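hey so u asked for the seq, here:
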Amino acid sequence: MNRPTQLLHRLVEEQTARTPDAVAVIGGDGTLTYAELDRRAERAAARLRELGVHADDVVAVVMDRSVETVVALLATLKAGGAYVPIETATPAARRERILLDSGAKAVFAALDLGGGPPRVSLEGTAGGCLPAVRVDPGNLCAVYYTSGSTGNPKGVACTHRGWVTRMRWMQRTHALRPGETVLHKTTLTFDDAAVEIFWPLMAGGRIALPAPGDHRDPRAIIDAAIAYEAVHVQFVPSVLELFLDALTPADVAGLARLRTVLSSGEALRPDLVRAFHERFGDRVALENTWGATEASIDSTQHPCGRIDGEVEGGVVSLGRPIDGNEVHVLGDDLERLPPGEPGELYIGGHSLARGYLGDPRRTAEAFLPHPFVPGARLYRTGDRGVARADGSFEYLDRIDRQVKIRGVRLELAEVEAVLRGHDEVVNAAATTWEAAPGDKRLAVYAVLEPEATATPETLHGYLSGLLPAYAVPSAIRILVELPLLPNGKLDRRSLPAPAPEAPSAGQVAPRTVAEQAVAEIWQDVLGRPSIGVEDDFFVIGGHSLLATKVVNRIRSAFGTDFPLSVMFERPTVAGTAAALEELLVAEITDNIGGHHAR
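ran it, structure tokens below
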């Protein structure tokens, strides 16, 4: 009797043999059939083998979402290696640290990295036979870097066994049919992206690729889901909220093929469940999942019914363990706690990652000997929760200083450690605050050296050069000293409000109608009393989700399809207003031209 395939790339190869001419990947930059994808990945894998890539070796992928990216991922697995995804916008210092820490032997990159591991081309690479590679289910398939409390990110060593189990559960639960489409909208550095890629490829489905950057724009996500007839889409709750807000009745009708929407990465609020059912009724299933990269992406699942939207306060159930996972609520001595008694949530099962790459100390701290199964391990999540009598679990809060910012795990200590590295910073403290339900923002407080010249703006620039965008604070305040408790520890309750209450010095007031309109929208979204025309949206508290809210407000107020990219390319009131004026003039000119033509 043949054993089920336990390697990601073998699953794809088996599907390729069944449907070689079916479309595997489709996007604005091209289309590949299964056979074409396989041939291109084989050639690139041969080149990786020439560079010495073997089982458990790491290959970095520094590329935006594209057909080429899918080729690079499959090629890495075919060569026996594990891919480490790095966003193209990652600051150079952080990117270099990840490349060094992972020991990457090669890199697929859409840009010149200026040194480091050999850069592999996806065009015209080696064409000979691929040498046989021995890869076992326990070998690595990917390394995902997450925030570390020391200031350095840590790499989660994910295995084929764990990820194949996750993909098989997706297919057993959702039964993707050949030719059906899954929208790959998640940034590759989120492990949920792996589900959007490898699940459809093992089931004969299509991966549809929105353009790079479109994952920030709910309008673009809706349009892509309609155009590609997606049956499955995934969101973090903060983006799901924007998606639901942007939906029109025509959009809901256009999403006729959509069957499931999966929410993960953050606690799902009941009001979002209620809003979801108000728009889709019972035609589309909403599922809440919970887990960690250390346990193959997700470990529990809960189908959200209408009753989940009626709960006052709190969050939606985490659900029950999925295939390959076990979940326990344990006390301080790792004793099992009865239903209803709060404790720390632990994950076990064969979906656990191997640990943290090259870091046995961190691995030993997080992956503990299983108290009930000799020889097995449990991953301590740091989440506090309770078991329910029906076998499901409920999330309560964190027991440490790890937070989620727009669905991404972040150690507050990492931000503090990086800020303390500034020459003029004596001490630092990081915290989070909510400007509105679900709008969690990051704030830092800095104590400077005497005679220091650093400002919140210069500190923002310093952090932007060392941290990923989600870890750069939306508010920076300079204090004479940090408030302390009698025991000498930081008194977080006594930290002042993160948002400034007064206009910054030298602020230039809006000069045109467009600037006034844009400034008023920014003030409302950011919760600031005044904004100058030269203020940078991302320096004064903005982030990608808030930029999306601004654009939605502009689209609604002016009845125009204002592009989200403007907020990143021209992030001042003056720049955004000028772009708005240019767009409106162009639309008026086109309308006049069309009228005369008739």
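The first strand starts at residue 23 and ends at 27. The radius of gyration is 25 Å.
lmk if thats what u needed
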